[in-house]
Amino acid sequence: MNNLFRSRTSHSKTLINEARTITLADKTIGYTLIRRNRKTIGLKINREGLTVRVPLQATLSRIEQVLHSKAAWVIRSLEIWKEKKIIQPQWCLDSTFWLLGDPYRLVLTESEKLQLISQNNKTDQIQEITRQIASLTPCRIEKFVMTWYRKQARAYMSERVALYAAKLGVPLPKVRLSSARTRWGSCSSNGTVSLNWRLIQLPLSLMDYVVAHELSHLIEMNHSAAFWKVVESIYPDYRQARAELKKID
Question: Which intervals hold domain YgjP-like metallopeptidase (predicted)?
Answer without folding.
Answer: 39-247
